Amino acid sequence: MRKAEAKQLINEAYDAWDAEEWLTAAGLLEQVLAHFPDAPKSPVWWYDAALAHKFLRNWAKAYELGREAAARAPRGEGEPAFWNLGIAATIQRDWATAREAWAGFGIELPDGEGEINARFGPACVRLDTGGEREVVWIDRLCPTRGRVMNVPVTGGRRFGEVVVHDGEPKGHRVVDGREYPVFDELLLFEASDLPTLKVTVNAGEVADLDALIGLFVEEGYGAEPASSFEVLCACCSEGTHEQERTVHAGAQSVSLAAPEQEARRLLDQWAGEVLLGRSWSGLELVA
């Protein structure tokens, strides 16, 4: 391939890129890279080809091309080539490459080998399944994975599942003056076997409701009162939103994440801890 032909293909690739024709753009870039893998501008071409496959959710190709992009990127300077490789390697479950990618980006991980299960703190993830969108809290296990700590109301989603999220925040939540990023979900990495249940509870005081939530959390389960949910428009969801605690006492629906027998035991225990003000009814499995 002559340089003039390569230049024409690169121009066509970025015309396709501007039109968000990711497969065409990546294919044209790969044609050029097959002949000019180490040209002065090749690091950008490798990165963009890998990024196009990330947009397509073709993780095998994003991984393959991402390795080439990262090999040509400076280490320790926050280069996005390393971040995207970290995502793709995580999804491919190549933990050695993922660890190397995070180190190349400039992130210090706890010593060890294999799957990364560290504590990167709380954040939020915008779940997206079948057009439904719900922001949930996660406990971050690595730079791109988190365990869901809410009981989702989105059908088919569960407390305790592990999701892979993107690296660029799309919004923030502010709680008690502290700001937390909201990331978009890329895929469900590990399902949860905890079913979702619904129950109607009557709590005389907010403290009674807090006691119910705490009881389930102590056992490694989840409890989410309906009064804690807040509906936001897309614009507000992707902006900076100050989140206030909105739970209230009285009768309301509560979503639970626990085996049914355990849920009944804990509900009975909660209701029996005081003489008046606590009751429950209508426990049912959510399909």
Main sheet overview? 5 strands, mixed, barrel
Order of strands across the main sheet: 1-2-3-4-6
CATH topology of the largest domain: Serine Threonine Protein Phosphatase 5, Tetratricopeptide repeat
- Which CATH class of the largest domain is shown? Mainly Alpha
- First and last CA, distance: 57 Å
Binned strand content: 25-35%
Q: What Rg is obtained from the alpha carbons, in whole angstroms?
A: 23 Å
Q: Overall 3D geometry?
A: elongated
Using the 3D structure, state the CATH architecture of the largest domain.
Alpha Horseshoe
Question: Please, what is the average pLDDT?
Answer: 92
- Fourth CATH level, the homologous superfamily of the largest domain: Tetratricopeptide repeat domain
* Helical stretch tally: 9
Say how many strands there are.
11
Compute the number of structural domains: 3
What string, H for helix and E for strand, traces the elements in order? Answer: HHHHHHEEEEEEEHEHEEHE
Helical amount: 25-40%
Low-confidence stretches: none
Which class of secondary structure composition applies to the elements? Answer: alpha+beta
